[in-house]
Design a protein that fits this description.
The complex is a heterodimer of chains A (113) and B (110).
Chain A: E1 4-7, E2 10-13, E3 19-25, E4 31-37, E5 43-51, E6 54-57, E7 64-66, E8 76-78, E9 87-94, E10 103-104, E11 108-112
Parallel strand pairs in A: 2-11
Antiparallel strand pairs in A: 1-3, 3-8, 4-5, 4-9, 5-6, 7-8, 9-10, 9-11
Chain B: E1 4-7, E2 10-14, E3 19-25, E4 31-37, E5 44-49, E6 55-58, E7 61-65, E8 71-76, E9 85-92, E10 98-100, E11 104-109
Parallel strand pairs in B: 2-11
Antiparallel strand pairs in B: 1-3, 3-8, 4-5, 4-9, 6-7, 7-8, 9-10, 9-11
The chains are: A mainly beta (113), B mainly beta (110).
Amino acid sequence: NAGVTQTPKFRILKIGQSMTLQCTQDMNHNYMYWYRQDPGMGLKLIYYSVGAGITDKGEVPNGYNVSRSTTEDFPLRLELAAPSQTSVYFCASLPPGSNYGYTFGSGTRLTVV
Amino acid sequence: GQQLNQSPQSMFIQEGEDVSMNCTSSSIFNTWLWYKQDPGEGPVLLIALYKAGELTSNGRLTAQFGITRKDSFLNISASIPSDVGIYFCAGQRNGNKLVFGAGTILRVKS
C-alpha cells in the first residue's frame, strides 16, 4: 500500500492562476480531508468528504473547491490563487468507524506570488 | 472554531533531557491524539488516548488523557537528536473530524 499520495510536492503560482492539488489513497478509506498548515497555526480543515459523491466545508473553505467522484481520489482546486493561500497543504484519510486518527500524505508546499 | 491551546510553542533542549508538552481546551474531547511531523513530511501518529485518565506509553513517549477530558500531556524521556520535529496534539469528539493544536517545535542539542 502506498497510503496517501499527494502531488505535486511543490508549486509556485502567480496571483489569479488556478491549479488542482491531487490526493489519492489506496486503503479504501471512506473519509478524506484537506488541511492547510500555516506557521504557528497548526492545521486548519478546508474541506472533507465522508464518501464518494459527498463533500462538506471545513473551517476555512473560502477560495477552494473539492470533488469526490471516487473513493480513492479527493482533489482540491484553487480557482483564483491569492497570496493568502500560500501554505502547506495536507490530505488525510480515515476508515469508517475508526477513532485511531488520520493517515496523512507528505504535503504540497504552495507559494502564490 | 474550536481551539486547542498547545504549549510550549518551542523548546530547545540538551540531548538526554526529558521533555513535556501539553494541550488544553475549553471543550471536552473523547479522543486525544499526539502526532509528530518531520521536516517536509506529513504528521505521523504517535499515541492515541481514548479514556479520561488513561496513561499510554510508546517507547520513550508517554501521554495522558486528562481527567476533565479537556487536556492531554506528552512526555519524552531521555531525548535524542531524532526527536526533533513538530509535535501536534489533536482532539476528536464523536464523528470523524480532528481539531489540532498549533504545535510544539522541538530542537535537541547534541
